[in-house]
Amino acid sequence: MGEFIIVQVGQCGNQIGGSLWPSILEEYNISKSDHENFKNGLINASKYCYEIKESFNSFFDISNVNCNNYSFSNLSDLKRNKVKARAICIDMEEKVVSRFSKSDLKFLFDKKAIITNYPGSANNWAEGYFSHGSKYKEKILESIVSCAEGCDNLHGFVLLYSMGGGTGSGLGSYILEQLEDFFPNIDRFVACVYSTGSEDVITAPYNMMLATQHLIEYATCVFPFENRALQEITTRKNIACESKFSSISSPFEDMNSIVVNLLLNITSGSRFTGQMNFDVNAIKTNMVPFPKMHFLSSSFSPIGINDWPTVSSNSTREKNFLKACSKDNQMMTFNPLVLKFQNEMLNFELFEILFADVGQAVISGMLLGRGDYTLTDMRKYIKILQKKTPFLDWSDKCVKMGLCDVPPVGHAFSMLSLFNSSSVINLFDCMSSKFQTLLNKKAHTHHYTSIEGFDFDFFYECQNTVADIREMYEEIKIPDTSTIPRLQPNINYEYKKFEIE
Amino acid sequence: MSFLSFCYGHCGNQIGDVLYSTIFEDIKNDNASLYFNNSLKKWFNVQRNGKWEARCILVDTENKVIATRKHKIYGFKNVVTGCYGSSENNWAYGYNCQSDLVLDSILNMVRKENEKRHITSYMNILSSGGGSGSGVGSKVIEELKNEYPKKNILNAVILPYLNGDLNTQNYNTILSLAKLHSATDSSVLFENDKLYYTCSTKLRNNINFNDLNKVIAFQLASIFQPLTSENDTFSINQLTTHNLFKYLQLKSSFPSTQYYKFESSQTWRNKLYPLIKQYEEFKGFKDTLQLKTKIMMSAVITRGKDKPTVKELEWFQSARNFVNWIPKDYQFSQSHESRHFCGREKTLTILTNDNNICNFLNSTIENAWKLFTKKAYLHHYEKHDVSIEEFQSSFQKMEDILAGYSNL
Ligand SMILES: Nc1nc2c(ncn2[C@@H]2O[C@H](COP(=O)(O)OP(=O)(O)O)[C@@H](O)[C@H]2O)c(=O)[nH]1
Ligand SMILES: Nc1nc2c(ncn2[C@@H]2O[C@H](COP(=O)(O)OP(=O)(O)O)[C@@H](O)[C@H]2O)c(=O)[nH]1
Ligand SMILES: [Mg+2]
Ligand SMILES: [Mg+2]
């Protein structure tokens, strides 16, 4: 099956990585020790053992395993066979990454793949991008190349970092750019955390704008996570993630587990079999109708314990689909199901309230049903979306469906949804206005300009790049009624003659 | 008569699997009858150790479907998959890039199969909406035609749901249908919408792709399984002699539609009636034009006890639903095989070259044209060397075909 290389950069990136790897192991049904009897994995273990085994190489390098008929059931099996995670862990401070080396999973990470420095990037994008970028370029590329060489069929890089700090944001941008240069044909997916809602870093608006500029230019697809959205979901739902492995723990643990589950869902189509393909590589073809407009709102269900349906029936599956498409489950501000069904529009007032929300336009959508979902379910949901989602005249047929046989651990089914919509403008605007306020006062700019390589004009450049893409998303909302007539047929109507050959 | 089949992409391979098991189920308990032998020869190579091997080349750019094929009494030896990753639902990527990786090994296998025995027909199974089947498939089929211009090449093409199952399906469909139309003589088209409808009238529960695939496999097998009576030389090319009209559609008495309850009274008339009804109820639209079924050519294949009488098939003699510029003799042919098919007492399949495909063609062109004029998704195709001009000429071709069918 296709392989992925996870590149985790900075504190946030590595903390997310810190919950990603234990979850991956759980998905592959690895237990901590020989004697443990697994409870969660049980459903998956017996039913999907073939699929699970076949796709183990997606996240792990098993080239050191020297028999064909391997099977891994616990950590010591992995250790014995020198299994390595396809991960590159980069942080410019030791704090987080060093926690890996104290965890149960320490042996999974190759020494070469861990790159650290002291004393961090001071929440300064320029320091991450210029100072650390130039200093660590060789080392980082070397470890990425060696990791890529261990892949037969590299499907993509998955980059994890926060936009608001210095290391993830700056060095992450730098790595993204390098990847485009060195691996132009390999997709680059970025799962990035926007600090909206957690204004704990004063210079975050600068860092976010500069890093966003790089996402626009160099990423294949971006899955933005607003910390505000993650916080809201964790307070609303009981996430209560607990892992059997000791790994990195952080106050963000519950929030990060949402990011992690989303990543597992997105990559599931490439790792497991299904009646209808959903390859991550197809995400860009389906979701990005115009170059650079690749910011996707994502969501899935079930998320928290409260959401867990007990039985699988047509109605529980449909409820779960509606949740996956509700605004409560979105990783950024967006409401996919705005329009109500006709018969629910009892009066005009209600009608107007509902349409007040429609300041958004959806240019593409994607649904992935995992586990028990059937074709009948999916056809029905696509109809629902086409009624309730503000697609444009030309985009209303642009819904991709996928079916994946293997559900997430412990569930009978789950639904992932992706949308490309103009609501990303909210994110750009929120970020730009804070950026503008800071820049007007020239607050903290000397920290940036004092870094070798950084020019003050970079502030204006990133502002323009973000403004341009914002404009593109704005333009699609304008209804365009001009139509170009179809081509005239060009045939000779004397064809109505019968000739026997 | 020997077939070499090709399954392309995710869809093609899923269907190929069901097709072969349908054929296998049909003949497995037979005692070396003529039917059995002909069928075996047609679809399988028998190896020295007595093991059967499907005469079939499986082509995919990723190995997910093929890898999970844990078999069975018969095997699939000819497998061309790279683990190259999917064709990204992009016809251009499949046609211009991924095909390079598999073309040589496919052509080699074809050469070897041709050395083993005289092969009369190549059958290609693919979906038009994706990237691998549609893109890689188009390329390989063109090459087959180049290398074997005299061979009989036919395609079974699965058409996507009209209201969308992937975002670039209409581009992929237009590009692949245009290529196949130039390269080959006959394509049997299966609309997923119609298959789904057929299943939904029969199965009350949830439907999956496998249910659709069973219908496709049943219909294909019912026309391609042997006809053992001596004067039956049915070939589907009889129905596509005109070089504009190359599309065929199948209707068959199983799985039965809502008339399932009549199945107990096993008469040909009862089998035929619901199928004819579909032709008569067809309503087509093209601009202001309202269309009723017009059939150019048709064939009826019956399998089971008692050949249907002329009277029972008299609908095919009525002028109302047939074009008037083709001599009657050529518009209808009938073939019968007295052996039961798939354990059913009577099976009836109608194969027609008719205008019922207009609605699909019209909507697909319309939806693709909307995206095209907005320039949506074009950069993915231009990246892999499919130019605006190529799009335009494919649109032109499809408009021509549509105009032809809607003016029958
Ligand atoms: N969701 C989430 N956000 C985080 C996490 N760690 C830090 N952040 C946010 O990321 C921003 C700081 O970036 P950080 O990753 O610490 O900086 P870096 O180490 O220099 O890349 C702040 O806005 C934090 O709220 C985390 O584990 N999860
Ligand atoms: N009838 C049927 N249609 C399918 C099946 N699998 C996929 N499709 C259709 O095929 C199209 C997608 O193409 P697919 O074969 O998955 O892509 P490829 O692997 O890139 O060729 C869509 O229109 C699907 O509706 C199947 O098993 N049966
Ligand atoms: Mg840090
Ligand atoms: Mg920090």
UniProtKB/TrEMBL annotation, chain A:
Top-rank taxon, per record: Eukaryota
Single GO molecular function: GTP binding
GO biological process: microtubule-based process
Domain (Tubulin/FtsZ GTPase): residue spans on this chain: 69-274
Gene Ontology terms: cellular component: microtubule
Sorted UniProt keywords: GTP-binding, Microtubule, Nucleotide-binding
Gene3D superfamilies named among the record's database cross-references: Helix hairpin bin, Tubulin/FtsZ, C-terminal domain, Tubulin/FtsZ, GTPase domain
Alphabetical list of Pfam families matching this protein: Tubulin, Tubulin_C
Signal peptide: none
InterPro entries for the chain: Epsilon_tubulin, Tub_FtsZ_C, Tubulin, Tubulin/FtsZ-like_C, Tubulin/FtsZ_2-layer-sand-dom, Tubulin/FtsZ_GTPase_sf, Tubulin_C, Tubulin_CS
Family to which the UniProt record says this protein belongs: Belongs to the tubulin family.
Protein name stated in the entry: Tubulin/FtsZ GTPase domain-containing protein
UniProtKB/TrEMBL annotation, chain B:
GO molecular function: GTP binding
Residue span, Tubulin/FtsZ GTPase domain: 40-231
One GO location term (cellular component): microtubule
Keywords: GTP-binding, Microtubule, Nucleotide-binding
InterPro entries named in the record: Tub_FtsZ_C, Tubulin, Tubulin/FtsZ_GTPase_sf, Tubulin_C, Tubulin_FtsZ_GTPase
Keyword GTP-binding attributed: yes
GO biological process, one term: microtubule-based process
Pfam families: Tubulin (PF00091)
Coiled-coil residue windows: none
Family: Belongs to the tubulin family.
Protein name: Tubulin/FtsZ GTPase domain-containing protein
Naturally occurring in which organism (per UniProt): Henosepilachna vigintioctopunctata
Biological classification of the source: Eukaryota, Metazoa, Ecdysozoa, Arthropoda, Hexapoda
